[in-house]
Design goal:
It is a single chain. By secondary structure, the protein is an alpha+beta fold. About 15% of the residues lie in helices and about 30% in strands. The protein is built from 3 helices and 11 strands. The strands form 2 sheets. Strands 1, 2, 3, 4, 7, 8, 9, 10 and 11 form a 9-stranded mixed beta sheet that branches. Strands 5-6 form a two-stranded antiparallel ribbon.
Length: about 180
């Protein structure tokens, strides 16, 4: 039976269990042996990570195009207009290749934990939040997509992976979800 662990990764934590430079890693938060991340989050991104002891399940979760959808909450510079939102939804060109279509919507500011350090604030430039649901996972994809439409990401939180969400999961904490009979 495969086991599943949900972890709310804080800002500044590496998504691996060791680091030769002494930075914070998953080992500092998850004492469960033999589980590994199904996917990754950048050092400066926060939110839901799924870990499992099953390589087959990890492949199902992360398979490009057919893996579990991932929903991100992005705080961006400015307020994206309808044109920018449609461009994100249709896919933008990154490295000469169009991203897959995404679900995109404006988002009221979510009730999140404070980020340390806080994002940079410019008094003359407003910020807003959008929700993006992707079915692929290119390197720094959300940040690169929002920048491509003129709204750089300031804070990025992965809210959901498949049917699992951050709801009830404080930053830096984890919970187990049972075995593979519970997994879609």
């Amino acid at each position: 039976m495969a086991h599943l662990v949900l972890f709310n990764k804080p800002y500044g934590v590496l998504t691996r269990f060791t680091d030769p430079h002494g930075r914070r890693t998953l080992k500092d938060y998850i004492p469960i042996p033999h589980v590994y991340p199904a996917g990754r989050l950048d050092l400066d991104s926060e939110g839901l990570m799924v870990l499992t002891d099953s390589s087959a399940l990890a492949a199902r979760i992360t398979r490009p195009g057919n893996g579990w959808p991932k929903t991100y909450w992005a705080q961006v510079e400015g307020v994206p207009d309808e044109r920018a939102l449609k461009a994100l939804a249709a896919g933008v060109i990154l490295d000469g290749v169009r991203t897959r279509a995404a679900e995109v919507a404006p988002l009221a500011e979510p009730a999140l934990w404070p980020r340390t350090p806080p994002i940079r604030v410019r008094l003359t430039i407003p910020t807003s939040w959008i929700a993006l649901t992707l079915r692929e996972g290119r390197n720094r994809q959300v940040r690169r997509m929002t920048a491509a439409v003129g709204h750089p990401t300031l804070r990025l939180v992965r809210y959901a992976v498949g049917r699992y969400t951050l709801d009830g999961l404080a930053t830096g904490t984890y919970r187990t979800v049972g075995d593979d009979r519970d997994v879609p």
